[in-house]
C-alpha cells in the first residue's frame, strides 16, 4: 500500500505499520477466547467524532505497541515520523507516564481505575469528576464511543481520565498490564449476549468469564483490588452467579460492595424500560499456602 506524504510524494507505508497490521491478524487467529463484541457492526463516525479522534487522541488516548516483545525495537524504517509514532506507543500500561503529577494526597499513590467497555464514556467522565485524586482509563473497542469520550474529556478539562481503543480481553490477557497494578476494574452493562431459547448458548461470549477473572488475579492489587460489575439483564445476572460459585469462589474470590456507579445511557434506558440494575463486587484473596 502506498500513501501520500506531506510534500505530495507517494511513499510506501512504514514497515512498522505493516508489521503491526500483520501482528494483529496473527494474534486474532491465535486468540484463545471468544470475541465479546461483534466486530463488523461499527457505526460510521460523525464529523465531530472524526475531529475528536484525529485531534484529541494524542492528548487523551493511549495506544499500545501491538507487536510481541521480540519484535519491538525492530522493523521500523528509520524515518523520523516512524520513530515518533513508535515512541508514542506503550509497551505496557504505565500509569505514571499516562498520568504524571504526583500522588493522591497524604503521600499516597493515586488509585487506578480501569473501566472495560466504557462506551461513550458517561460513567468514566462522571467518576473522574467525582474522584479527582483517582486516575481512570476507559477501554472501548468501538471507535465512535472512543471519539465521544475524547471530546468530553477535552471539554471538561480532565487530566485524570484517558481512553484506549482496544479489545478489553486482548488488553487483559496480553503483556500490557503489569502485575498488581490495578485498584478497581469496572464492567458496566456489558453486552448480555441473550439467548431467547433458554439454553444460554452464548454465555461463552460474555466478558465476565474465566479468562477475565484469571487475568485479574494477576493484575489487581492483592487483597484490595476489586472487580465491579453492573447489568440490567436477568440472564447476565444469573451468569455472574454461576461464574462466581463454580469458578471464582473456589479460587479465593469473595463478595464485596461494588465501586460507585454513575448515570449512563444504558442505566437510564434500563430504568425507562422498567428493568432493575444489579451491581455486584468481588475481591480476590488467594488462599494461603501452609509451609510445613
Tell me about this structure.
This protein is an alpha/beta fold. The strands form 2 sheets. Strands 3-6-5-4-7-8-10-9 form an 8-stranded mixed sheet, sandwiched between helices. It has a two-stranded antiparallel sheet with strand order 1-2. α2 crosses α6. The N terminus is likely disordered.
Main features:
EC 2.1.1.33, S-adenosyl-L-methionine, alpha/beta, 292 residues, eight-stranded mixed β-sheet, single chain, methyltransferase, tRNA (guanine(46)-N(7))-methyltransferase
Q: Mind sketching the topology for me?
A:
Elements: E1 2-4, E2 10-12, H1 15-29, H2 47-60, E3 61-62, H3 80-88, H4 95-98, E4 112-116, H5 122-130, E5 135-140, H6 143-156, E6 161-165, H7 168-173, E7 184-188, H8 210-219, E8 226-231, H9 234-251, E9 253-256, H10 265-272, E10 278-284
Parallel strand pairs: 3-6, 4-5, 4-7, 5-6, 7-8
Antiparallel strand pairs: 1-2, 8-10, 9-10
Please state the structural category. alpha/beta
Sum up the overall morphology in one term: globular
Number of discrete helical segments: 10
Gyration radius over CA = 20 Å
Concise structural overview:
Keywords: Methyltransferase, S-adenosyl-L-methionine, Transferase, tRNA processing. With 292 residues, this protein is an alpha/beta fold. It has helices at 15-29, 47-60, 80-88, 95-98, 122-130, 143-156, 168-173, 210-219, 234-251, 265-272; strands spanning 2-4, 10-12, 61-62, 112-116, 135-140, 161-165, 184-188, 226-231, 253-256, 278-284.
